[in-house]
Amino acid sequence: MPPPPDVTDPRLSRQIAFLIEIDQLKSVLRRSNLVNLSRRENDAEHSWHLAMFAVVLAEYAACTVDEARVLRMLLIHDLVEVYAGDTFVYDSAAAADQEERERAAAERLFPQLPDEQATALRALWDEFERRQTPEARFARALDRVQPLLLNFHTQGSTWRPHGVTRADVLRHREVIEDGSPRLWEYIHSMLDEAVRRGYLDD
Amino acid sequence: MPPPPDVTDPRLSRQIAFLIEIDQLKSVLRRSNLVNLSRRENDAEHSWHLAMFAVVLAEYAACTVDEARVLRMLLIHDLVEVYAGDTFVYDSAAAADQEERERAAAERLFPQLPDEQATALRALWDEFERRQTPEARFARALDRVQPLLLNFHTQGSTWRPHGVTRADVLRHREVIEDGSPRLWEYIHSMLDEAVRRGYLDD
User: Fold this and answer.
1) How far is CA B163 from the centre of its chain?
2) pTM over cut 0.90
3) Per-window interface: A 66-125 vs B, CB < 8 A
4) Which site among A88, A118, A119, B11 is 20 to 30 Å from B56 CA-CA?
């Protein structure tokens, strides 16, 4: 990568270098497929899609949430994957060291920003991970809901090849229901329908 | 696409159908290349990247801006391209009917949401297009800045094959400077450097 062109303003140059560095998120592939089945989804477009979920579905959050905070959280929630890679939610072997890998990535990534921004974004990412505030609970629920919808609308294109069952999906219940009881209710009946249609094993 | 599974709640079903419909934005290609030059960028990841620009560079907005409003605007600014396609900023033939094509797309897309959400998102898109509020000015500036940075960091990978010159780029000056004088100053010196390095024709 070429050096930033304006060395006379180290603050702005660091911020721009960070924005160029995170361009890599567009190349981190997830397991979900696009609805048109042309290819797998990447983390950057997943993050955009989740933010749109927050814009359209805000009324279903379990508690009143600060919209800007939810959006910022969803925009940054997968940033660490530029170094840690994506971890498939049904892969328990990869899940074992996921926390450690992602923490190491966070320690490498966020300090590339000016100090107070690094601290603020790191705190926002920790908040998302800990799932203790209304904003984090809603954001985490959406992060679980979106791949389920992509799966349903692609006839179980990720569930079927990986042999995912309804019981596997139901392990997400708490995260979704806690952030949005109404969305959990919707997802629950969608899963029944997915089993009836043969998209998901019972 | 299968019918929404819960016909007992037409409001939520419409919202979910809209979120599935806009998945198509991930397949609308732009002219910019990713920084790693592996492929062209799509509209969904571009929208995510712009939202991250707003998070990191908010301090450089010409006036104080409402962050949630800027983020929402950037997230939705290219939605109409699911039907209208992307229009290359240096293609004056395509630009001729761009406004008409995008307006028709907006009239088809937004009404898929419940009425008050359709009205609100359409108003937000119109605000972005008209560039008259502080939020729209800053958002529009970022939308011009991001592809210039991608170009610089890929040695002019879009500029060179399309014979784009510094004079072509300088036609963006007003939009950028109006939303962020400081970012314009940065871009201006970056363009000088791009010409020196042979990424951009003088």
Assistant:
1) 22
2) yes
3) 67-68, 71-72, 75-76, 113, 117, 121
4) A88
